[in-house]
Amino acid sequence: MSSAKSDKPLVATYADHEVIMPPNTLRRALGVRDPNSAEDPVARAEAALAQLSGEFSGWMSAECERLDQARLAVRAQGFTAATREALFHAAHDIKGEAATFGFPWAATAADSLCRLIEHTPDPDRIPLALVDQHVDGVRAIIRERARSDIAAVAETLARRLREVTEEFLAHENRDRHLDGILAPVTARG
Q1: Residue 53 CA from chain centroid, whole number
Q2: I need a surface site. Which of 18, 72, 136, 158 has the fewest CB within 10 A?
Q3: Helix/strand/coil (H, E, C) string of 113-168?
Q4: CB–CB of 116/130 below 8 Å?
Q5: What residues does 13 pair with on adjacent strands?
Q6: CA atoms of 9 and 72, how far apart (whole Å)
Q7: Neighbours of 145 (CB within 10 A)
Q8: Which domains does the chain have, with CATH numbers?
Q9: Which residues of the chain have pLDDT under 70?
Q10: What is the pLDDT of residues 102-130, one digit of tens each?
Q11: If DSSP codes are grouped into helix, strand and coil, which group holds residue 108?
């Protein structure tokens, strides 16, 4: 691929330093928007998201089912590498998708489960009851999303799950350096 003149960085030389300005290739990748065009790419993306929004509930139900199946596999087989990974990824996907799909309160509970799995040195020491509480909490938050008090209930539930998880992690990691393991609870946006 040939390199155009604009692909080279601009260099401004001064008496005691140089300033290098790299080329902006992002503009070329995005294309040039006609300022006279009424088409707004952000509005187009939001419209596409709105069209898909009817599917979000079904997708989250499927994610909850996947999380529950991962939990059942842990119960049946213990924390093997495969069951631990499946449980972590199911929770992590919910954590990442929840807000986009209209279930923001489920993300905090799913994040707590991810932290539990990720930061416990010996997964076999994770109480299955604590895993159950997380999975059931996530499922309940998603199932009861239409309740008028869901924000308060979900926030209380997620906060308590996080507190119990942090207490467990502090105990399990008591002989280790805890920076990066015990993180402060993040503020809700």
Answers
A1: 19
A2: 18
A3: HHHHHHHCCCHHHCCHHHHHHHHHHHHHHHHCCCCCCHHHHHHHHHHHHHHHHHHH
A4: yes
A5: 18
A6: 56
A7: 18
A8: 66-172 (1.20.120)
A9: 1-6, 27-38, 49-56, 177-189
A10: 888 899 999 999 999 999 999 999 999 99
A11: helix
